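Please check this record.
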Amino acid sequence: MQIRVTFAAAGPIPRALVAMVPPTDHVTSEETNYGQRISLFTSHDEPDLLRSALRAVAGDVAVGVIAGPLATQGARLVMLDVDSTLTTTEAIDLLAQHAGVGAEVAEITERAMRGELDFGQSLTERVATLRGLPISIFDAVGPAMTLSSGAVELIAAAKAAGALVGVTSGGFVQLVEPLAARLGLDFFNANHLETETVDGRERLTGRVIGQVVDRDQKARDLLGFADSAGIDPALTVAIGDGANDLGMFAAAGLSVAFCAKPVTAAAADVAINFPRLDAAAAFAF
């Protein structure tokens, strides 16, 4: 089977690691903004076994063993998570801090991480703490959403390759929509915070309206966006950091975990453990 083995790292890539790949004359190597990239085009009958062997000893080097169309073609669609992926921040935490309920929201998040609440339940409980906030809070929180290092470079690399870029987020439309517009993204979806007018001021009701963007919806977003653009799902890349991203990981042609939680990293085709989002371009294009 024809495969592409790609390594990306913030520092030098060990020769001993590269030597574990079956011999080939087709090798590319380049210095990048984030460090170094090496790709080898070769063949292997058990690419999953090779991936496991390489990742077991790779340390901080990100490893991709890529079969199928993406072994020889660039991705045509990149779909990203927002909180802690495209940005270094979590929207609900920023809103909670402004609302003075940061500790309460953190406790709900901890319960979710312990498995006591699923994503929908934890979202409902956390959003309820925001009831009564004026919508002007978005003007304060939006500028505090900090892009991950390399985010702009990854989007530029995708556009240069002719790929579309979208985001699907468990955050909120009121924050994600202006971010997507500023970055020139082709698609976005996020949860919509309900508002009401009280005493002449528009305020949050503490509820989400419409379809919650959970694990299953993220998968639907990726497949739906790909279908609307006439793109084969095998030529899509999903990038995220949490359990809520596992649905789109399963739907995509290639999944990339970015500075992710261990369970998410283990489920992904590629795990990038250093904080440069543009390293994902090494595997996508």
